Amino acid sequence: MALFPFTGCAGTSRIPTRAGQLTPGSQAKVFLAGTRKGAPEQDIKLAVRNAAEAATDFSWLSKGDAVFIKPVINSGNPYPATTSPTAIAAMVGILKEKGAGRVIVGDMSGVEYLRFSQTSLSGSTRALMASSGIAKAVQTSGAEMHCFEEGGWNAFYEDLAAAGSNWKHGLMMPNILKEVQHIVLMPRCSRHILAGSSLGLKAAVGYWRHDTRLEYHRDAATLQEKTAEANTVSTLCAKQRLVISAADKLLTTFGPDRGYAFEPDNGLIIASDSVVAHDMVSLAWLLENRRMIPASERDGFIDTSKIVPRLANHVVTSWLGGWGPALASETMRKNSLNTIWDDRVLNHSHEILGGVPVILLESVNSTLPEDLKHRLGTMTTIPA
Questions:
Q1: CA 168, 255, 270: angle at the middle one, nearest 5?
Q2: Which of 84, 76, 88 lies closest to 131, judged by CA?
Q3: Contact present, 114 and 124 (Cβ < 8 Å)
Q4: Angle of the 41-55 helix axis to the 85-97 helix axis, nearest 10
Q5: CATH number of 9-378: 3.30.479.20, 3.50.50.60, 1.10.10.10, 3.40.50.11440?
Q6: What is the pLDDT of residues 34-46, one digit of tens each?
Q7: On the CB side of 186, how many CA atoms lie within 13 Å of its CA?
Q8: What is the pTM of this model?
Q9: What is the distance, to the nearest Å, from the Cα of residue 255 to the centroid of all Cα atoms in its chain?
Q10: 8-state DSSP, 78
Q11: Which of 142, 166, 337, 379 has the fewest CB atoms within 10 Å, i.e. the most exposed one?
């Protein structure tokens, strides 16, 4: 079993100080299963299986092992504002078939819907899992639900990002991760008003206790860089095996909870053992679909404004720590996303996780159009 299952994690004992370089790294395969618009649930599940089984042989999974599935349940809104319930059910079934014992699906929702401190709790991830349709998928597939806040403030442990990161403190991660041998990350493909996009690297936020989230938003000048650096904590380096997204629907504007939900004629399931490679392709797919949505939706003020994210981040900081930290918080700069090379989260991940993966795209079914695969390949190749 590989100790560092996603590309470059083995090289993160200290974060390098270089910046702005696009240095080619090692090859990384990303597997794509095509889907048709309006495809029935069984077709989506088959596409998830095809992509997952192409991306890994599951040799890391011993009989009886516990596996944690990390979706994105930042709100109670349905997919694509949250992870696809159909994809989650498919992944639970695959893991159980391969010999997993406990399969646990869990997250902690966004601060707009859940406030959590040492002395108080309001809101419920469990309720949002129900309203998004994820709870039903988890229950009917035979997995467990786990909502981090339900264990209380002390149900978290400190994990450290690689030395030299922008984090001033360790990241407070949920204790449940100590009880599992493996993690499967199941993000969605979405725009995000603050970070630019919500893909695999950004999904790490859902693990954190609210004091960690406060530092993240208060020290907002490096929010994107801290997003990448959060994926260097030892737990994720040691246990994350697979990153797989259903992207047959996308939240193409605004985000993370609301925006224009678009279902293209040809959808994708995206799978890789490299979170960075996965996100390069997922972001390319998001940009490809943003070009296809109606012009009236494409360039809305809230979606493109540089001022709105700054104000929104102050509000989020106030929810996490009060108006004192909010007023003292750093200015957040949202980057443009015309190409994947504009994204600060990905650019920093390339600097700290072994360079820019050389993406090898592989089709796993006949539903994926060859010209689409070619376009995504061009979009994820380092520009000359």
A1: 90
A2: 76
A3: yes
A4: 50
A5: 3.40.50.11440
A6: 999 999 999 999 9
A7: 31
A8: 0.95
A9: 13
A10: P
A11: 142
